């Protein structure tokens, strides 16, 4: 019963936040609503016994990514409101609604009609509750937490992927520095007329 | 399929995820501010994350949580680079939105 | 040693590449020396391969070297490979040998030219192409060289392309050669169709073992002959060669006398096993076209005044002799004459180049005379070349021409007769050239006909203006008289006496001016009559034109030219002349007719000939024929000496205008092509534009319309693209759902 209540609260937080993100005129508000959604997702993770991921979700998403968003918003001074009443591209909104509805319908039909097929046999290669590899570290299976399970898999079966992510992050940092550096040459002038012309 | 009240089944989480994903997609298509579009992408990623974890629990497989871990890393990298690009663009053309950046047309 | 054959074309190719990259940097004269050294290297390689070939037995004198497969296409496969046999190596020897000398000569001749290094670049490329032509072991490789030499010929004819006529001459050569190339190509296709190969050895092996239908062989032979006619300037495709003289003289010597134009002869000889299977009338045709061209060109050469034009028509004529030999089945004689001709014609061209060089680029022989005093080396070597081409024993031309005439006699006495007349004409026009250039009076400073005519015109105009002035004075006097008479009518008293006196005075004056005016008019008319009846100014072979009456009106031309002194050329130019002169003297020794043992060339070439040619008659008759040939030559020389050395007889009776215009053949072709031909071309152009281009352009326009519409999809808006992605994702999802349902 408690889990149901937690789930309901989390779902409310998530969906409310999501609506807030897409409906707020001000990007700062969007970012704050995003934080709300991310917290909701973290709660869902706890509900799903993924405690480590819940922590990471809060630290990485709420703590780093959203802060980065806010930084950029503040840095560039683009916190002005976006006029949501105007849609420059004809037919974009109806199409977007249709697509979103179709996506929702498709995913729902997967869950509702063919969802049963997803519940196949339990995993044998990477079981979540029986901690086989942790034995080597001297801990008893009963004391195994999901952090241990994740960690042991991450540094054994998935170590190559893990190292690759390290490289990826390094590249991302270097790329970001390179991109955000101020250009040495004069800034190319680009008038509004050009922009209007470009939109046409 | 049961809708028992005592504990939410995996299907509930999947449906939540579906709604969140659709909302993210809608936002991505409707909003013009590149930063908000990015946030919508994050919403969609989170929807997928919920699916991963829920199905991982259903199948008692650690793979679901591992996938989420990697998605988090990739999302972080993506945001870093994406925001850098947005910074560069907006520095050149203050106040630009996604529709203004249309030089790559045929 | 035979393995080194690839070096022969590799040297000029290397030279070409080096000059392409660094020719401009090397500059003059290093670029020339580089090209010359590499040509010499090619010659040395040829000699080495030749020695290697000599070391083999006669039956084994054939060697193939395949470098790589060029065109592998199913059943059709072409290698880049070289065929070394006595024929190809003979060609290589004289192409590289004469080529080296001409390269050396060019260093002197092209001195000071802006495009010095580019000239040698083309020369090396030409040598490479020519060597590929002769060494290629299949028809396609030969064709590659064939086109290569054509292209180089085009580049070099229009080398000084800033002048319009030079550029036109280059284009003319190129276009005319296309007709011949068409023949070669179709012959190649036919060979492939008949034998499935275009490799010479396989072709001849196929003919040897399986035989060939006479009709096919005839067609191939005829088409090859068309190709040979184009390259070797035979009637009716000879048109381009005289115009090709627009190029620098070393080019005329190398390409348009010694090597490229002989490639037709080479091709016919190379294909002799095919020719042997063709109908006999093909040979008759070739022989008659050859001898006809020889006679035709020789008659034109008689009336040319441009020193290089004479040699150009002479080349056409001599090539006609070679085709006469082929038509008579005497391939050895053709190759023999080709070699000796390469020596003496290159010598003559280089000599003429030396003359032109020494005479300030004046090419008109009427302005020469007695040049042996100024350029003795050029004169002596040129005279040797003259004796060789005129067929005077024991110079090389005598032996080769005699052999051809003997072979022609064997085929048909009529051919021999025409050939003999041509030999006489050859001796005549060459003697004319030598006498006009190196003997007689030095005529450079003479007043030229156009100057004399202009001076007479000035004099007539002056007399006319004097007459006009006298007429005006007379008219004035008459009006003064009329005025005085009018005054007399009005006058009275004392005035009347004065008026009568005035009238008398006026009458006297008027009478005097009337006489003056009529005298001046008469003398002007007389002068004009005299000028109109003046004999046309002749060459001034014996004495300068008599110009004492008009010496003041001649202008500065002759006086200016009196300051000029012709000079001998530098050593780079006369050394090749001397070497070639030596070759022209002794060149006949490679195939002496006295006994079978001294017919070196004939024995040497025997392996490549399907059916050796044997002259059917005995030594005695051969001797009589030789006597006739020598006599014909001497008669030609004698007539020329009488007319151009002694001044007996009128040269204008010989140099008929129709001959000078080349029997109006060139202008007729031009008129036809410009008139009905042009309309035909324009019709074809319209059909091309409307029909073929229309279809192509229609497709293009359709594509453009469609793409113009589709282009709008790509509007540059990120969110539209996102819609596209989303639609795709939804459709994929729908697909998977349907599949899952179905499954």
From TrEMBL, chain A:
Keywords associated with the record: Membrane, Transmembrane, Transmembrane helix
Gene3D superfamilies linked: NADH-ubiquinone/plastoquinone oxidoreductase chain 6, subunit NuoJ (1.20.120.1200)
Transmembrane domains' residue ranges:
6-23, 30-46, 52-75, 95-115, 158-180
Q: Note the InterPro entries from the entry.
A: NADH_UbQ/plastoQ_OxRdtase_su6, Nuo/plastoQ_OxRdtase_6_NuoJ
A family per Pfam: Oxidored_q3
**Keyword Membrane appears in the UniProt entry:** yes
Q: Which GO terms describe its molecular function?
A: NADH dehydrogenase (ubiquinone) activity
Q: Which PANTHER family match?
A: NADH-QUINONE OXIDOREDUCTASE SUBUNIT J (PTHR33269:SF19), NADH-UBIQUINONE OXIDOREDUCTASE CHAIN 6 (PTHR33269)
* The protein, known as: Unannotated protein
- Please name the source species: freshwater metagenome
| Lineage, opening ranks | unclassified sequences, metagenomes, ecological metagenomes
Automatic annotation (TrEMBL), chain B:
Q: Which UniProt keywords apply?
A: Membrane, NAD, Translocase, Transmembrane, Transmembrane helix, Transport
How does the protein's chain sit in the membrane according to the entry? Multi-pass membrane protein
Which InterPro entries does the protein's record reference? NADH_UbQ_OxRdtase_chain4L/K, NUOK/Mnh_C1-like
The answer to whether keyword Ion transport applies is: no
Q: Which GO terms describe its molecular function?
A: oxidoreductase activity, acting on NAD(P)H
What positions belong to coiled-coil segments? none
State if Magnesium is listed as a keyword: no
Q: What Pfam families is this protein classified in?
A: Oxidored_q2 (PF00420)
Its localization reads: Membrane
- One cellular component (GO) term of this entry: NADH dehydrogenase complex
GO-annotated biological processes: ATP synthesis coupled electron transport
Segments crossing the lipid bilayer:
12-30, 35-55, 67-90
> What family is this protein classified in?
Belongs to the complex I subunit 4L family.
Mind telling me what this protein is named?
Answer: Unannotated protein
What organism is the protein native to? freshwater metagenome
From TrEMBL, chain C:
Q: Which UniProt keywords apply?
A: Membrane, NAD, NADP, Plastoquinone, Quinone, Translocase, Transmembrane, Transmembrane helix
- Compartment(s): Membrane
Gene3D superfamilies per the UniProt record, alphabetical: 1.20.5.2700
Residues of the NADH:ubiquinone/plastoquinone oxidoreductase chloroplast chain 5 C-terminal domain: 563-644
Which biological process terms from the Gene Ontology are attached to this UniProt entry?
ATP synthesis coupled electron transport; electron transport coupled proton transport
Q: Which family does it belong to?
A: Belongs to the complex I subunit 5 family.
Q: What is the protein name for this chain?
A: Unannotated protein
- GO terms for cellular component: membrane
Report the main location listed first in the record: membrane
User: Which transformation does this protein catalyse, written as a reaction?
Assistant: a plastoquinone + NADPH + (n+1) H(+)(in) = a plastoquinol + NADP(+) + n H(+)(out); a plastoquinone + NADH + (n+1) H(+)(in) = a plastoquinol + NAD(+) + n H(+)(out)
Report how it sits in the membrane. Multi-pass membrane protein
Concerning PANTHER family, the annotation shows: NADH-UBIQUINONE OXIDOREDUCTASE CHAIN 5
What InterPro entries does the annotation carry?
Answer: NADH_UbQ_OxRdtase_chlpt_su5_C, NADHpl_OxRdtase_5_subgr, ND/Mrp_TM, NU5C-like, Proton_antipo_N
Q: Which Pfam families match?
A: Proton_antipo_C, Proton_antipo_M, Proton_antipo_N
Q: Which NCBIfam families match?
A: NDH_I_L, PRK06590.1
User: What stretches pass through the bilayer?
Assistant: 6-22, 34-55, 87-107, 119-135, 141-161, 182-200, 212-230, 281-303, 310-336, 342-359, 371-393, 413-431, 571-594, 622-645, 721-740
Q: Which residues form the NADH-Ubiquinone oxidoreductase (complex I) chain 5 N-terminal domain?
A: 70-120
Domain (NADH:quinone oxidoreductase/Mrp antiporter transmembrane) ranges: 137-426
């Amino acid at each position: 019963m408690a889990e149901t209540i937690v789930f309901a609260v989390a779902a409310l937080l998530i969906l409310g936040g999501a609506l807030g993100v897409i409906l707020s005129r001000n990007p700062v508000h969007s970012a704050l609503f995003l934080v709300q959604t991310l917290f909701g997702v973290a709660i869902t993770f706890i509900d799903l016994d993924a405690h480590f991921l819940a922590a990471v979700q809060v630290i990485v998403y709420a703590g780093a990514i959203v802060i980065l968003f806010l930084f950029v918003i503040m840095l560039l001074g683009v916190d002005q409101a976006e006029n949501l009443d105007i849609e420059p591209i004809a037919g974009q909104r109806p199409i977007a609604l249709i697509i979103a509805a179709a996506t929702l319908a498709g995913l729902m039909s997967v869950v509702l009609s063919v969802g049963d097929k997803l519940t196949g046999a339990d995993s044998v290669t990477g079981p979540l509750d029986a901690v086989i590899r942790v034995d080597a570290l001297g801990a008893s299976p009963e004391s195994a937490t999901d952090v241990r399970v994740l960690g042991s898999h991450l540094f054994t079966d998935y170590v190559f992927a893990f190292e690759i992510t390290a490289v990826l992050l390094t590249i991302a940092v270097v790329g970001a520095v390179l991109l955000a550096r101020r250009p040495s040459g004069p800034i190319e002038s680009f008038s509004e007329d050009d922009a209007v012309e470009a939109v046409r | 399929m049961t809708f028992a009240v005592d504990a939410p089944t995996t299907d509930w989480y999947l449906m939540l995820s579906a709604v969140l994903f659709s909302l993210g997609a809608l936002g991505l298509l409707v909003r013009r501010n590149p930063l908000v579009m990015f946030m919508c992408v994050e919403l969609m990623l989170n929807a997928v994350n919920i699916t991963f974890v829920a199905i991982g629990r259903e199948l008692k497989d650690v793979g679901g949580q591992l996938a989420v871990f990697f998605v988090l890393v990739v999302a972080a990298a993506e945001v870093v680079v994406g925001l850098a690009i947005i910074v560069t663009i907006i520095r050149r053309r203050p106040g630009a939105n996604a529709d203004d950046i249309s030089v790559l047309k045929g | 040693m035979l393995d080194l054959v690839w070096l022969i074309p590799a040297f000029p190719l290397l030279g070409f590449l080096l000059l392409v990259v660094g020719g401009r940097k090397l500059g003059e004269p290093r670029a020339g020396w580089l090209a010359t050294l590499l040509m010499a290297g090619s010659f040395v390689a040829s000699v080495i391969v030749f020695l290697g070939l000599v070391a083999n037995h006669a039956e084994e004198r054939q060697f193939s070297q395949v470098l790589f497969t060029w065109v592998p296409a199913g059943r059709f496969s072409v290698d880049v490979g070289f065929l070394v046999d006595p024929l190809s190596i003979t060609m290589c020897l004289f192409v590289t040998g004469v080529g080296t000398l001409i390269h050396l000569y060019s260093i002197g001749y092209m001195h000071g030219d802006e495009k010095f290094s580019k000239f040698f670049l083309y020369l090396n490329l030409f040598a490479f192409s020519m060597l590929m032509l002769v060494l290629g072991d299949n028809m396609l490789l030969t064709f590659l060289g064939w086109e290569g030499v054509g292209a180089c010929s085009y580049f070099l004819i229009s080398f000084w392309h800033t002048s319009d006529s030079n550029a036109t001459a280059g284009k003319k050569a190129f276009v005319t050669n296309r007709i011949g190339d068409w023949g070669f190509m179709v012959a190649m296709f036919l060979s492939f169709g008949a034998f499935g190969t275009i490799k010479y050895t396989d072709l001849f092996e196929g003919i040897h073992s399986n035989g060939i239908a006479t009709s096919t062989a005839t067609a191939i032979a005829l088409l090859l002959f068309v190709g040979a006619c184009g390259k070797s300037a035979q009637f009716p495709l000879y048109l381009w060669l005289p115009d090709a003289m627009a190029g620098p003289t070393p080019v005329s010597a190398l390409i348009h006398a010694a090597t490229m134009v002989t490639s037709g002869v080479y091709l016919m000889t190379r294909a002799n096993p095919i020719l042997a299977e063709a109908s006999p009338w093909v040979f008759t045709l070739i022989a008659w076209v050859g001898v006809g061209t020889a006679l035709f060109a020789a008659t034109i050469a008689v009336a040319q005044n441009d020193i290089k034009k004479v040699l150009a028509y002479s080349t056409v004529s001599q090539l006609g002799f070679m085709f006469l030999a082929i038509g008579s089945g005497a391939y050895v004689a053709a190759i023999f004459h080709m070699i000796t001709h390469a020596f003496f014609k290159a010598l003559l061209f280089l000599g003429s180049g030396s003359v032109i060089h020494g005479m300030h680029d004046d090419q008109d022989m009427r302005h020469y005379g007695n040049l042996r005093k100024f350029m003795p080396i050029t004169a002596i070597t040129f005279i040797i070349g003259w004796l060789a081409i005129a067929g005077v024993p024991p110079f090389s031309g005598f032996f080769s021409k005699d052999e051809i005439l003997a072979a022609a006699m064997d085929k048909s006495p009529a051919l021999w007769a025409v050939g003999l007349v041509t030999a006489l004409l050859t001796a005549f026009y060459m003697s004319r050239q030598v006498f006009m250039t190196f003997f007689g009076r030095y005529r450079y400073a003479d007043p030229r006909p156009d100057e004399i005519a202009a001076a007479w015109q000035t004099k007539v105009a002056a007399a006319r203006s004097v007459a006009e002035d006298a007429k005006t004075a007379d008219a004035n006097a008459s009006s003064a008289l009329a005025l005085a008479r009018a005054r007399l009518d009005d006058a009275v008293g004392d005035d009347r006496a004065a008026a009568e006196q005035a009238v008398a005075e006026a009458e006297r004056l008027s009478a005097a001016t009337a006489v003056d005016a009529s005298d001046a008019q008469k003398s002007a008319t007389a002068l004009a009559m005299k000028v109109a009846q003046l004999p046309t100014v002749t060459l001034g072979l014996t004495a300068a034109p008599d110009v004492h009456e008009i010496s003041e009106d001649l202008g500065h031309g002759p006086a200016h030219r009196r300051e000029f002194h012709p000079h001998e050329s530098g050593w780079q130019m006369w050394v090749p002349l001397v070497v070639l002169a030596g070759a022209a003297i002794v060149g006949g020794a490679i195939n002496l007719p006295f006994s079978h043992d001294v017919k070196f060339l004939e024995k040497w070439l025997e392996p490549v000939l399907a059916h050796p040619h044997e002259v059917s008659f005995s030594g005695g008759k051969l001797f009589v024929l030789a006597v006739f040939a020598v006599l014909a030559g001497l008669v030609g020389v004698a007539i020329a000496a009488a007319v151009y050395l002694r001044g007996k007889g009128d040269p204008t009776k010989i140099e008929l205008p129709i001959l000078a215009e080349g029997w109006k053949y060139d202008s007729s072709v031009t008129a036809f092509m410009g008139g009905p031909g042009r309309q035909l071309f324009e019709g074809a152009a319209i059909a091309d534009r409307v029909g073929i281009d229309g279809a192509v352009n229609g497709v293009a326009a359709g594509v453009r319309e469609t793409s113009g519409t589709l282009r709008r999809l790509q509007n540059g808006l990120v969110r539209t693209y996102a819609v596209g992605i989303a639609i795709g994702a939804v459709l994929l999802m729908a697909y998977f759902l349907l599949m899952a349902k179905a499954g």
